[in-house]
Amino acid sequence: MPSSGDDLFTREDPIFENKELLEINHLPEEGRIVGRDDEISDLANAVNPAIFGQSPSNLLIYGKTGTGKSLCAKHISAQLVRVAKEEGVTAKFAYVDCAQDNTETQAVQTIADSLNDPEVTTIKIPDKGLSTSTYYKRLWKVLDSQYDVVLVILDEVDKLDDDDILMQLSRAGEAGKLTDCKIGVIGISNKIKYKDRMDERVKSSLCEREFVFPPYDANQLRDIMQARSDAFKNGVLEPSVIPRAAALAAREHGDARKAIDILRYAGEIAQSNGSKTVREEFVVQARERAETDRFRELIRGSTPHSRYVLQALAVLSLNRPDEDGFRTTKIFDVYEEICRQEGSDTLSLRRVRDLLKEHAFLDIIEQSRHSGGSAEGSYTEHQLLEDPDVVRKVLVETDEA
Ligand SMILES: Nc1ncnc2c1ncn2[C@@H]1O[C@H](COP(=O)(O)OP(=O)(O)OP(=O)(O)O)[C@@H](O)[C@H]1O
Ligand SMILES: [Mg+2]
Fold it and tell me: Which residues form the Cdc6 C-terminal domain (predicted)?
C-alpha cells in the first residue's frame, strides 16, 4: 500500500522545543546572559549619563570572537532605552554591522534609516542615491527632532573603509551639528591592532572608555549552554552532552558562539539520524561543523592578502603535518608564490608579519618565540590552530565567491 502523506511526515519536532534559543541572531534575555556581570555594569556606568539626557561616554569594546561583545552592547543599549523612558528621556539605539555597511555613506544611511520615524519627521532616507553629506544632514535632523539621546553601535568597526564616520559621530555635538540630541558611540572590534591604525583625533574622542572582554572558561560555557537547554524537549539532551561540548569549546577558544553552535548542530544531527536523544558522540561531529562556520565567520570581509597569508600557512601545514611551527620567512616564500598565482603584488615582510599577528590574536594561529643560538638570534614560529583542511576549504570557497 502506498504510504499516505500522514505517515510520510513527522508532525512534531522530537528534539527541539524552542530552537530559536540557539539561533545565531537570537538575543537572549537578561537571565540567560551568564558570566558578564562586571562587563555589563561597566558598560552601564559609561552610558549612564544618557538617562539624565546628558552625553554618554564613547566606548570601544575589544575581545576575541564569541566573548559576548555584540550581545552585551545590544543588551545594555536596550536597557538604557527602557530606563531612560521611565525618566522621561527619549532614547534609542542604532546598530550597524560594519562588515556589511562598510562605507561611510552606507553606515550613515543605515543609522538614519533605523532611527527615522517618517511620520514624525516627514524626512525620507532613501536606500541610496544621496550624497554622504546629505545623509548626514538628514541624520542630524532626525536626531534633533525625535530624540534626547541616541547610542550608535558600530559593530566590527575595523571593517569600515575609513574613520570619517567615527569623527563625525563622536564630534557632532561639539561641531554644532546637533543642538538638542546627545549621541554616544559604541565601537566593537576583535582586531587588537585596530586602535593603532586610528587617527589620533578619532582615538581621543572614540576611546574615552575601553573594555576588553576575556574568553570564557569551561564553567562559564557550560552555564551559558545550560541557560539555553530549554531549547530542547524535556529529557532529550543526555546529561554528558553539555559538559563535553563546554570542555571542547573551552579547550580551543572560550568562544560562546561556537559552544551554542555545537549544541544546535548536535540536536540537528540527532534529528537527521532519527535518534530520540542528543548523544555525546554527536558533539564531536557537531564540533567540526561549528569549527568550519566559525572560521568562515572570522575571515568574513578580510582582505585577500590576509587570506593568502593563511593559505600559505595551510599549504605548509598540509605538506608537512609533522612540523609544529613555520618561520615567518618560510611562510613569506609560499605567500609570494600564492600572490604570483593570483596575479597580485606582494606586501612587505613587515606587513605579512602584522597580518600573522592579527590571526594570532583571533586564535587562528599560535606564535612562539625561539632563540636560534648566538649565530642566529631569535625568531618566531607560527602554527595553525584551525584544522588546515578546514582552512583550505573555506579559503577556496571564499575566493570563488
Ligand atoms: N555571557 C553570555 N551569556 C549567554 N550567551 C552568550 C554570552 N556571551 C555570548 N553569548 C552568545 O554567544 C554568541 C556570540 O556572542 P557575541 O555575538 O556577543 O560575540 P562577539 O564577542 O560579538 O563575537 P565576534 O567578535 O565574533 O562578533 C551569541 O549567540 C550570544 O548570544
Ligand atoms: Mg560581534
Answer: 310-395
DSSP 35: S
In Å, what is the CA distance from 389 to each residue of 229, 249, 291?
32, 19, 11
Which residues' Cβ are closer than 6 Å to ligand 1? 28, 32-36, 63, 65-71, 190, 224, 256-257, 260
Answer yes or no: is 31 within a domain.
no
Is 216 annotated in some ligand binding site? yes
Specify whether 54 is located in the same domain as 184: yes
Domain for residue 163, yes or no?
yes
Q: Is 386 helix (H, G, I), strand (E, B) or coil?
A: coil
Q: What is the pLDDT of residues 271-330, one digit of tens each?
A: 999 999 999 999 999 998 988 888 898 888 788 999 999 999 999 999 998 888 999 999
What pTM, to 2 d.p., does this model score?
0.84
The reply to whether 136 and 249 lie within a common domain is no
Do 194 and 98 lie in one domain? The reply is yes
| Counted domains in the chain | 3
Q: Ligand 1 pocket check: which of 61, 70, 226, 291 to mutate, most ligand atoms within 8 Å of Cβ? A: 70
Which of 26, 36, 40, 71 to probe ligand 1 with, by most ligand atoms within 8 A of CB?
71
Nearest to 190 by CA among 301, 300, 98, 298: 298
Reduce the DSSP state of residue 87 to 3 states and report it.
Answer: coil
Relative to beta strand 378-384, strand 149-155 is unpaired
DSSP 154-203: EETGGGSS-SHHHHHHHHTTTTTS-SS-EEEEEEEE--TTHHHHS-HHHH
Does pLDDT of 378 surpass 90?
no
pLDDT band at 3 (very low <50, low <70, confident <90, very high): low
187 assigned ligand-binding residue: no
Among residues 157, 186, 213, the one where a domain terminates is 213
- The parent domain of residue 334 ranges over 304-400
CATH number of the domain within which 127 lies:
3.40.50.300
Rounded to whole angstroms, the Cα distance separating 87 from 51 reads 7
Does residue 2 register a pLDDT over 70? no
pLDDT tens digits along 320-356:
988 889 999 999 999 999 999 999 999 999 999 999 9
Residue nearest to ligand 1 atom 18, measured at CA = 68
